[in-house]
Amino acid sequence: MTFSRRGFLAALAVAPIAAGCGLGRPDGAAAGPRALPIPPLAEAAVGADGVRRFQLTLAPGRAEILPGKHTPTWGLNGPYLGPTLRARRGETVAFQVRNGLPEPTTLHWHGMRVPARMDGGPHQTIAPGQVWEPSWTIDQQAATLWYHPHPHGGTEKHVYRGLAGFFLIDDDAADALDLPKDYGVDDIPLVIQDRRFTADGELDESDPSDIGLLGDTIVTNGIAGAYFRATTSRIRLRLLNGSSGRIYHLGFADDREFQLIGTDGGLLPRPVPLTRIQLSPGERAEIVVPVQAADRVLLRALPVPDRGDIDAADAHAFGFDDRFDILELRGAASTKSTAALPDKLIPWTAIPAAAATATRDFELRWYQINRRQMDMNRIDFTVAAHSTEVWTVRNVDDWPHNFHVHDVQFQITEIDGAAPPPALAGWKDTVYTRPGSHYTLVMRFSGHTDPTFPYMYHCHLLLHEDHGMMGQFLVLGPGQSPAPMAMPHGGHG
Ligand code: C2O
Ligand code: CU
Ligand code: CU
After folding, report:
1. pTM score above 0.85
2. CA 422 to ligand 2 centroid distance, Å
3. Are residues 470 and 357 in the same domain?
4. What are the backbone angles phi and psi of residue 422, rounded to the nearest 5°?
5. Residues 160 and 259 in one domain
6. Strand ranges, E, within 321-425
7. Structurally, how many domains does the chain consist of?
8. Which of 31, 69, 169, 334 is a good FRET partner for 440, with 20 to 30 A between their CA atoms?
9. For ligand 1, which residues put their CB under 6 angstroms from it?
10. What is the pLDDT of residues 128-173, one digit of tens each?
């Protein structure tokens, strides 16, 4: 089997760059920016048993992503995207996930420490009309996680059509900090996605590049061309790259400094001042941005500066040269001043790499990890419950990739032999892998054991994942041996 690595290049004379023109709108049409929608907080019923119960229905709909156009979409409890789920550490959550779509799907809790059969990976298929009822106890620190479908070979299209949402975890340690935390007022979830539309306003799923469907229109929280009106002197943005394959190098048009306070798995030990932050698909960052009265400033995506072993034509085709306006921040006529950020956030404990009972190497190239493509019927390795492991991930390709591991938050100990920069020194579940570089990760596995259902590790460029750039591992307790289920049509190729 061969995929053409460059065949698409000719076809990819697209990507008119929306530099400076009306906020990611492809046609510069008359309508002005619209207020950023804030995903509603999901309603939950907490029973006498203390269990927090949520209902999610996945169904087709129509959404006004572009002003005046009613685009056919898929969404959760609404036409596009889903509500923000929120639960506290220690709480038990339970879901009824109803599949109202015309095809099978799954729902995965990205970044969550969760029993494998509740993980919502490709083994937890929900047939059309069926309801899936996962439940688990939240056992990790406050963090900005997210959820999205993960069907075998079909994740990119399900997410592209609109299936994704935030899952925020709260805990006492984060609550005790004087951080912006008024949801939708100074604590803003912001999912960034790129999309392409046909002339009649349908989502265009044609001609993916080798890193997936690249859009020419930026959609934030479900609309193109959004602004956010800030009423406080500091706002917290919980950024999520919810795109298929695009890498965003973000910064403000006036180069203002912001503070990075959290990464994928939670808050940092202290705020890190930055002017740029880069996110590959699936990654999150929490930043706190100063806003003045009557301010107007654009959050922008700028060309990706640090390219590694990628040639100029590929970098261009993969969107590394593109510029987009992401979101306009407008300060209200007067902004309420809020407390300065604390110097210290959450204490940091390094996972002792010396405690590792296994080291593993992963080589990323083409649509493969260690020269293999995903097979639903192959367990790639097993891991001991509660163990610490050190994984080295090498991108030996001239393509960009990233690397995501289910069930854990890891710490990056080295990048090409050096300590990671502060922006990559916190808890992570997804890391960008620059072509030619290698990343050493240390992680501790949970006590959730299951001889039947595996967890996934994969490239989170969704087309790569769908093309088989994924593997699976079981977490086993003492004396357990693998007993996976046979899946029909499990492989790729
Ligand atoms: Cu966000 Cu395995 O996925
Ligand atoms: Cu995940
Ligand atoms: Cu990849």
Report:
1. yes
2. 23
3. yes
4. -55, -35
5. no
6. 324-336, 358-365, 368-369, 381-384, 388-395, 401-405, 410-415
7. 3
8. 169
9. 108, 110, 148, 150, 282, 404, 406, 456, 458, 460
10. 999 999 999 999 999 999 999 999 999 999 999 999 999 999 999 9
